[in-house]
Design a protein that fits this description.
The protein is built from 5 helices and 2 strands, in the order H-E-H-H-E-H-H. The chain has one domain: Four Helix Bundle (Hemerythrin (Met), subunit A) (Up-down Bundle), CATH 1.20.120.1630. The chain is mostly helical. The structure holds S-adenosyl-L-homocysteine (SAH).
Length: 206
């Protein structure tokens, strides 16, 4: 239980954390919507990588980052897997979610019209290597991992907390190699040089 100024009764850390998690997801959607509308209007030049496999991975990730935690937030299921949530965990989770949203917004701004939900190459697609793309090759995936980490901190439930890391982890593991192969096929030596000077998701590490 924590006491909040202006709030007559102490509220549980769990209900505050759940609200913060929900605000984060809504914030993410609001940030993304304008880019999604724009992406629908840009022509696709190469959709060979937009496969059932890629849609399946997107579904698994949505389950882990969205559906399973939403079910927990609304129904408390699965109650038996819930543990107490500390204030430190709540505060850290909030800061990590804020960092995820900031990075997410930066990646969208830097990637611009080259962004797509599924793997595809747009008309006049440009290889972006500046902004946050100078630090790592997949900063948007770094942002999703930060979101998943925030979820694990904010939702004190073994299923709903960790489903984001597992769900997004599966998408990342099965997609990143194909995405890089697609980029190499399209941009050749330029992409090889970019790979040689950057890491995937953590600057200097991986
Ligand atoms: N993996 C990147 C982008 C995710 S969006 C990230 O995590 O930031 C996926 C689409 O972005 C792919 O279909 C690909 O066409 C495009 N893309 C990925 N890296 C890119 C880059 N460096 N420059 C331009 N487009 C890129």
């Amino acid at each position: 239980m924590i006491s909040l100024p202006l709030f007559p009764h102490p509220v549980s850390t769990l209900s505050v954390a759940t609200l913060i998690w929900a605000a984060g997801v809504i914030g993410w959607y609001v940030l993304r919507l304008p880019f999604e509308l724009k992406a629908k209007r840009t022509q696709v030049a190469d959709a060979r990588h937009r496969t059932l496999r890629d849609y399946t991975l997107l579904t698994i990730s949505t389950l882990g980052l969205g559906i399973i935690p939403a079910v927990f937030a609304v129904t408390n299921w699965p109650r038996a897997l819930t543990y107490p949530l500390s204030v430190a965990q709540l505060v850290t989770g909030t800061l990590v979610f804020a960092a995820a949203l900031w990075l997410f917004w930066r990646t969208h701004r830097d990637l611009g019209r080259n962004w797509s939900v599924t793997l595809e190459i747009k008309d006049a697609h440009q290889l972006v290597t500046s902004g946050v793309y100078r630090q790592v090759r997949h900063p948007m995936y770094s942002a999703f991992f930060l979101w998943a980490l925030a979820q694990a901190l904010l939702l004190p439930n073994l299923l709903a907390g960790f489903s984001g890391l597992v769900g997004f982890g599966i998408l990342f593991a099965f997609r990143v190699g194909r995405e890089e192969a697609m980029m190499r096929e399209t941009f050749g030596a330029d992409y090889d040089a970019y790979v040689a000077r950057t890491k995937r998701i953590i600057p200097g590490l991986y």
